[in-house]
TrEMBL record:
Lineage of producing organism: Bacteria, Bacillati, Bacillota, Bacilli, Bacillales
Gene Ontology CC: one annotated term: plasma membrane
Protein name according to UniProt: MraY family glycosyltransferase
Sequence positions that bind Mg(2+): N148, D208
EC number assigned by the record: 2.7.8.-
Amino acid sequence: MLYIVIALSFILSLILTPMVKKFAVRIGALDYPNARKVHQYVMPRMGGLAIFISFVIGFLVFLPQTYTLWPILLGAIIITATGMLDDLYQLTARGKLTLQLLAAGVTVIGGVQLEFITLPFIDERVEFGYWAIPITIIWIVAITNAINLLDGLDGLAAGVSAIALFTISMLAVMMGNPLLALIGFLLFGSTVGFLAYNFHPAKIFMGDTGALFLGYMISVISIMGLFKNATIFSLIVPIIILGVPILDTVFAIIRRMVQKKPISAPDKFHIHHCLIRLGLTHRQTVMLIYLMSAMFSLAAILFTRATMWGSTAILIALIILVELIVEITGLISKNYRPLLNLISKVTV
């Protein structure tokens, strides 16, 4: 069954993406190069519409039409419409945030909520009560924007999202949650199908249409499955899976606060920009970030299978790894650029 789900969504996305490309060109949903962007040519965007449509078809064919799923689909429609409007008209940051809050609010009111956590070691349950609503909304909006901020190179956001979706889906299978697995694999197949046209050199960009949709869906299904019997440690699992976009977003917020710029202000200091400046090619940068995402995903799977103390050890190791990545990147950029350039040439 899962193989059929992946295959159908993949094929649908492969067929739909060229159609969406023509549609984007016709309505003027185009991405023009500028000083902040890496690409040098005018590119059609709104490619995420193909991911969304293939998912919706799979949703109607494979998923049970239950009351609990319809608010999720309604939220997905709102967030996709938000991305389409932004791809066409460049919405203001406030306008985008308002519509994101609306999509998250609809989903939360429909029953997708983080209602409690269980403290480790003492097994004491802490109920969030009315705080469950704002906490869940913040999580959805934060992850949605984290994926959106990562969408700066050909295939980057789509590939990282596919890795996260595959990991969440496999964890759902391990936990005996077939509904979550179906949703995750539908999204995975749709994203990989689109990635065939989006990997460098890209023929179409997913735009905010795709980045916001994928970020929204990843945030929602992580709540549906990984937070089900929420302990503090299970809350960490989706954060580990999404380690790359979350770290990139946190660093971007800190950077803009230090520079006294609006948090929504764009710049060219995201992780992919920094790696390119260090000497890596476009494709090498994307593949390196894929590898980092896969490492975080593997750590998340090990995290769920380990004992409490084992999970603690993995978490500490990840924290040390993140610190080493930050320090080594800074060291290389200052002192070892010729060495990195040599490595880059050897690995072309």
